[in-house]
Amino acid sequence: MSSGLVYKRLLKMELPKGQSAFLWGARKTGKSTYLHSHYPKSLYYDLLKSDVYLKFAKAPHLLREEILALNKVDLNYPIIIDEVQKVPQLLDEIHWLIENANAQFILCGSSARKLKSQGINMLGGRAWGYTFYPLVYSEISDFDLLRALNTGLVPIHYLSENPRRSLKAYVQDYLTQEIKAEGLTRNLPAFARFLDSLVFSNGMLVNYSNIARECAIDAKTVKEYYQILIDTLVGYFVEPYTKKKGRDVISATPKFYLFDVGVASFLAKQTISALKGSEAGNAFEHFILMELIGYRGLNDLDFDINFWRTKTKLEVDFILDGGRIAIEVKIDDNVKKQDLRGLVAFCDEHKPEQAYVVSRDARPRKMTTVAGREILILPWEIFLKKLWNKEII
Q1: CA 141 → CA 9, 12, 136, 150, 253, distances in Å?
Q2: What single string gives the DSSP state of each residue in 213-225?
Q3: What is the pLDDT of residues 123-137, one digit of tens each?
């Protein structure tokens, strides 16, 4: 990958003086780099360093003593604690320092699961919440779609000269070993088999019984494993749109997507050589979803993202904001009306304010359904530019 590629992260942490914050995000998405860049004068504690971790794990009160010894100039900047979930007891000390020493913190981590499951002090609303994502389209100056579908958009993978090796290390070292190290699962072999099963379930309706049978575990454990991935920010459920009108929708079973299309491609052992075919189409749909999730989070918006599917298998990829916007994703470069039966049916029955097809068509086009509903077909780059310019939602 060209070393000249430039990206500037879109996250804006605009913290008033004295306001603390949590910054959550999957490992290697760039949280630490962002914080070092934006807060160069801050005192920084990295709990991934074994000596720092052991010091505070044995004696959390040392943090309080060190912060109380700071001069007023140092307290003008937020104190950053990276991977705060590794020593949950520090949050009591941090709470005290916020209340009694006017200290300001940015607490960075890859999962709040361990903190919440142990009933740990989450600062009682005293800290704002932010989420960090892999790279998104608007952050990359020379975006390469084919590369993104293969490597994903975790920065070190997208920029790597050997992305497959980087992805292998990420899956083996983080998605298995580190999740075990955090105490989130005790049965590592079963969890590894579960990760392998995601090859068949990423972007699909979740079938807990089938996965349990394949992994030789019970369905309850499968549900717990999915929740681990969601709590550690490496996966998302997309729930079905269930507002009924003329057709019966399928049962309320969610779809599951990993947080990064490259991780999904690696687990599936697939290399996409061209922007065509079912594998490329599935990865393209996954990529567009990640853009929608990133756009929503980085702009602090609250709209729902659902999918629609009927018992007759009519389907629309994404329904936004309670049915106001419908989006179908096609890898084709010449979308035809017969390819859009699900979107046409949804438009005629639910009457969204706007319906889009995101495709590889060369130019925008407008279709009209028999019932007179308009569908706008947009080349994917135009769609993403409109999305990030706040012209879609």
Answers
A1: 11, 19, 11, 18, 38
A2: HHHTS-HHHHHHH
A3: 766 789 999 999 999
Helices 208-215 and 219-231 meet at what angle, rounded to 10? 100
What angle (nearest 5°) sits at the alpha carbon of residue 261, between those of residues 258 and 262?
Answer: 115
The whole-angstrom separation of Cα 259 and Cα 131 is 12
> Residue 318 in contact with residue 357, Cβ under 8 Å?
no
Pairing of strands 354-359, 305-309: unpaired
Amino acid in position 18: G
Rounded to whole angstroms, the Cα distance separating 118 from 91 reads 12
**CB-based burial label for 16 (10 Å; 0-12, 13-18, 19+):** exposed
- Rounded to whole angstroms, the Cα distance separating 29 from 155 reads 6
pLDDT tens, position by position, 58-91: 999 999 999 999 998 989 999 999 999 889 899 9
> pTM of this prediction?
0.93
Query: How far is C-alpha 247 from the geometric centre of its chain's CA atoms?
Result: 32
Q: Phi and psi dihedrals of 122, rounded to 5?
A: -100, 25
Residue 241: name the closest of 313, 306, 328 by CA.
306
Spell out the domain ranges in the chain.
20-131, 137-388
Q: Which of these CATH numbers, 3.30.565.10, 3.40.50.300, 3.40.50.1370, 3.40.50.720, describes 20-131?
A: 3.40.50.300
By the 8 A CB rule, do 120 and 127 touch? no
The string of DSSP letters for 55-84 reads: HHHH-THHHHHHHHTS-TTGGGS-EEEETG
